[in-house]
Specification:
Blueprint lengths: L7 H7 L3 H7 L12 H7 L4 H13 L12 H34 L9 H28 L7 H24 L11 H33 L2
Helix pairs in contact: 1-8, 5-6, 5-8, 6-7, 7-8
Length: 220
């Protein structure tokens, strides 16, 4: 892969495991995925060659990703619905319960993620509203070939994606960048694992829409 001329978003959707490298280095591959990797690394003061070495190592062990740039759009949409929309709806209620338990039992501890439950409830509401707009307006328009209609809804979805990106940053602050006390209970550990997975899923969700689905629908 020609990393010199690839955007962070392109690499994220083409190379399995690349998102983990980007998250470790705090490189935005979803809302800010349109930036060349060289520029993104430079802006963060990171060594481009070191990141490329990590990505090339992934290439050697790569299990092939679906070629979403060439799959039918209805198949891509079905993938998004099953692997992201359904998963967000399944995961968030349980995370809210775990967060509530942590705040009730461990509220006096320094590393307690105070406000986590309330913030997850807020995220759940915003995500549900966002996903319903996609399911009721944007996705049917794409599936029915109404491409002349999609520019407006896509712009709204991208703006909401930016807000989701800000929520991810706030979420990481609330959980103290996942720092746990040495005696953290299993509920606390399970909650943080779930929050990590939620963030990964949400970033992959946004990346696939911003970098593949939306451009393809607009250029159809």
């Amino acid at each position: 892969m020609d990393y010199q001329n690839k955007t962070v978003g392109d690499i994220a959707v083409q190379l399995s495991g690349a998102t983990k490298v980007f998250r470790k280095n705090k490189l935005d591959f979803c809302c800010g995925g349109g930036v060349l990797l060289t520029e993104a690394a430079s802006a963060k003061g990171l060594d481009f060659d070191t990141i490329v070495c990590e990505l090339k190592e992934l290439e050697q062990n790569e299990t092939e990703n679906p070629d979403w740039q060439n799959k039918d759009l209805n198949i891509l949409i079905e993938h998004i619905l099953k692997n992201f929309h359904e998963k967000h709806r399944y995961d968030l209620p349980e995370l809210i319960k775990l967060a509530q338990r942590i705040e009730i039992v461990h509220g006096n501890k320094e590393l307690c993620p105070t406000g986590l439950m309330e913030f997850l409830v807020k995220m759940e509401g915003e995500l549900e509203s966002h996903m319903q707009k996609e399911e009721q307006i944007l996705f049917p328009a794409i599936n029915n070939g109404m491409f002349h209609f999609v520019a407006g809804p896509i712009e709204v979805m991208k703006q909401e994606h930016d807000e989701h990106g800000k929520n991810i940053e706030k979420l990481e602050k609330i959980v103290h960048n996942f720092e746990l006390p040495s005696d953290a209970c299993n509920t606390w550990r399970a909650c943080y694992l779930g929050v990590r997975n939620l963030i990964d899923d949400l970033m992959n969700h946004i990346s696939l829409e911003n970098n593949v689905l939306f451009p393809r629908a607009l250029n159809h």
